[in-house]
Design brief:
This protein has one domain: Deoxyribonuclease I, Chain A (4-Layer Sandwich), CATH 3.60.10.10. It has five helices and twelve strands. The chain is an alpha+beta fold and 255 residues long. The protein is globular, with a radius of gyration of 17 Å. Strands 3-4-2-1-12-11 form a six-stranded mixed beta sheet, with no helix packed on it. The termini are close together. Strand 6 and strand 7 form a beta hairpin. Helix 3 packs parallel to helix 4. It binds one DNA strand of 15 nucleotides through loops.
Length: 255
Amino acid sequence: MRIATWNVNSLRSRIDRVEALLDRHEIDVLALQETKAREDQLPLMGLQARGYDVAAVGFNQWNGVALISRVGLDDVEVGFPGMPGYGDPVEPEARAIGATCGGVRIWSLYVPNGRKPDDPHYVYKLDWLARLREAASGWQHVPTALVGDWNICPTDDDVFDVTQFKTSTHVTPAERAAFQGFLDDGWAEVTRAHAPGYTYWDYYRQRFERDRGLKIDFVLGSPELAARVTHAFIDREERAGQGASDHAPVVVDLG
DNA sequence: ATGGTAGAGTGTCTA
């Protein structure tokens, strides 16, 4: 089974690219972030014609997550237990959607950005991660993947220039500790060993052309799922040229 | 410190 995660930065503006990606790599399950659309706004015809089911949630123009699967899409759950509303303009429930696809529990996650370390949104980010960790600690009895845009660079090598991030989110000790907490609980990041390199490049300043990016899109597997991973790759070609998302898709093969 | 680009949708906000 082949699963993938992609921060698509608007599903409606890139539906043709999504369909081409599914076809090009024969993806069974695709997790999307930043869909920026409500479920009733999604263009589904091309996906359904290809045999895919879709589950999505999104409340406004900045947010939203989705799962697209051709191997089943059961027990769909939006958000996770213990995640209440915040003063965030973005509804937290639009940041996580889970389903069972082909016997694997998959969560499409869009971790809050944090904006600035002194912004209330940064506190919200850390709290959101703590609540996810607590909920996810009870999910490892079935093969489970926590996939998506984590908005954290776990190591200095995951940033093109850490000196430019002295006052920025994504690299703070608290964020890295939050990420490490999942690993301490037994989750394994399964893409890095097969697919080094960045997954996100800012639209500004020709960052992609100069390969000045961040590695922030990850797949964390439960022990049983991690043991099944045979390969992973980053589809950098998808990031090239006009009309690309600022993130590249990350693809993982399960045996 | 600021600004640069892109997508939501017409005002800025978010990333």
